[in-house]
Amino acid sequence: MTTQDSGSAPKPPAKDPWDLPDVSGLSVGVLGGTGPQGRGLAYRLARAGQTVTLGSRDAARAEQAAAELGFGVEGADNAECARRSDIVIVAVPWDGHAKTLQSLREELAGKLVIDCVNPLGFDKKGAYALKPEEGSAAEQAAALLPDSRVTAAFHHLSAVLLQDESIEEIDTDVLVLGEARADTDLVQALAGRIPGMRGIFAGRLRNAHQVESLVANLISVNRRYKAHAGLRTTDV
Fold it and tell me: SS3 for 196?
C-alpha cells in the first residue's frame, strides 16, 4: 500500500519566502518619531507612500516634526499615535524604553509592534552592548506588551542616510525577528517598501540580543572608516 493509498494527505509545497503581503494600505506609527532614527524611518516610509504618524511625549513637538517631513506625515502624542496605527515602530531611547511601553500597554494591544531599540552603553573606548534582564529590548517589549504582536527590525540603519533627502535608495538588508511568520512577513514587506532595502527573516525573538548588539560593532566600523555602514546578507 502506498502512502497515498493509506489516506494521508500529500505534503503542501513550501511557501516561497519572497511571497510577502501587500502592506501599502497599512498605517504606521513611530514612537520616538522626533529622534534621529524614528524621524528617518518615518521619512523613508512616508516617501514610499505609507501613511505615517509621528509619536512623541509632546504632541506639539511631534506635529512640528511631521510638518517638516511633509509627505502627509502627521504628528500626535505617543498614545494617539499608537491608537491610530496598524503597525507601531518603537524607536525611543533605551533608557525610556520600558517606561514608554508600560504606559502604552492598552493602546498597543492587538497591534503589530516593531522594536528597533538598541541597548548600548558608551565610554571612552566607544560603544558596547548592554544585556537587559529579559535578554534584549525586543524581549522586554514582549514581556511588557503581552497583548501585542512584538517583532524586532530596523536596528542597523544609519539615521544620517535615512534623513538625507538626496539619497534615493539605501542599499541594505533589514534583519527581522519574531514568533509568528505572518507577522515577520508583514515587517519584511514593510522594509521592502523603502527603495534599496530587503527584509530578511533572522529568527525568533530569543535571537534579538545579538542583532541589537551588532550595532556597537557597526558604530566602530563607521568611526574608523568615516562611513554609514549597513548589512547585506549573501546568497539569499
Answer: coil
DSSP 59: H
Residue 23 corresponds to which amino acid?
V
Report residue 51 as a C-alpha cell: 501613511
Per the document, the length of the chain is 236
Q: Are 92 and 32 in contact (CB under 8 A)?
A: yes
CA distance 115 to 187: 11
Q: Specify the 3-state DSSP secondary structure of 31.
A: strand
Rounded to an integer, what distance in angstroms lies between the CA atom of residue 36 and that of residue 49? 20
Cα 103 from Cα 15, distance rounded (Å) = 38
Walk along the chain (236 residues) and give the pLDDT tens digit of each residue. 455 555 577 887 888 999 999 999 999 999 999 999 999 999 999 999 999 999 999 999 999 999 999 999 999 999 999 999 999 999 999 999 999 999 999 999 999 999 999 999 999 999 999 999 999 999 999 999 999 999 999 999 999 999 999 999 999 999 999 999 999 999 999 999 999 999 999 999 999 999 999 999 999 999 999 999 999 999 99
Return the sign of the alpha-carbon dihedral for residues 78, 32, 165, 20. negative
Q: Cα separation of 62 and 109, whole Å?
A: 22
